[in-house]
Amino acid sequence: MIIDWNQIDTVLLDMDGTLLDRHFDDHFWLEHVPKRYAAKNGIPLDVAKKSLYALFRSQEQTLNWTDLDYWSDRLGLDIPLLKLEVEHLIAVHPGVVEFLLFLRQHNKRIWLVTNAHGKTLDIKMRKTRLGPYFTGIVSAHHIGLPKEDVAFWGTLQKTVPYDPARTMLGEDSETNLGTAEAFGISHLIYVSRYSSTVPPLPSERFASIHFFNQLIPSPGAASVSLKA
C-alpha cells in the first residue's frame, strides 16, 4: 500500500490504543475497577472480575461501553474519580507527536475521532497535552452512534466536512476500520502496537504500522510504502 500525502487532506485518528497506550484502559477496566468494586461490595476479587467482565462484554460496540456516567450508575462507583487514581499510566505512543507535527507542517486537517466519553477526553487531553495539535475533537457520544456503526461515518460529515476519498483513518480496531471502509474512506491504517504490554500483531486485512512515524516520508518524498 502506498500512502501518497498529496492525495490526503484530512486525517481522522482514534485515541485509545491508537495515539495512546491502551495499557491504561486495560488495567483500569480489568484490574482497577474490579478491585474497587470488590472492596465496596465485600466480595472476592475473582468473583467481582467474573461478574464485571460479563457485564462489560454485554455493552461492547455500544455507546454505553465508554459512557463513564453509565458505569458510575451501574456499578455504584465514581468512575471518573477512579480514573484519576491511575492516571499516571496514561501515555502517548512513541512517534505520535512527531507524526502530528508532520501533519500540521503539511497543512492537513487533523481530527481526533473517538468513542471515548467526554469526561475521559478531559482527563486524557489534560494529561497528554495533545489537544492543541488537532483541528478538532469529536466524541461518538456527540454523534449519537459508535464507530462500529457504518452510519457513524456519514453522520460525522455533519461535523467534519471530509471527502472519504481523500481521508486517512488511523485505528487500533479492525471493526471500526471495516465500517469506515464500507462507508468509502480510502486510506485505512491499523495500529498493531495498541498496548506496550501486548506483542503487536499486524492485521491480515489492513495496512499495519507499529508506530505513526512509519507514515512520515523521507526528506523530499511525498509518499511511503506499507505492507498490506
Q: How would you describe this protein?
A:
The chain has 228 residues and is α/β, with parallel strands linked by helices. Helix content is 39%, strand content 14%. The chain contains nine helices and eight strands. A six-stranded parallel sheet has the order 4-3-2-5-6-7, with helices on both faces. Helix 9 (174-183) links the parallel strand 5 (167-171) and strand 6. The radius of gyration is 18 Å and the shape is globular. The relative contact order is 0.19.
DSSP strand count: 8
Query: What is the global morphology?
Result: globular
Q: What order do the helices and strands follow? A: EEHHHHHEHEHHEHEEE
Low-confidence stretches: none
What is the fold's blueprint, element by element?
Blueprint: E1 2-4, E2 10-13, H1 23-41, H2 45-58, H3 68-75, H4 79-85, H5 96-105, E3 109-114, H6 118-128, E4 136-139, H7 140-143, H8 151-156, E5 167-171, H9 174-183, E6 187-191, E7 207-209, E8 223-225
Parallel strand pairs: 2-3, 2-5, 3-4, 5-6, 6-7
Antiparallel strand pairs: 1-8
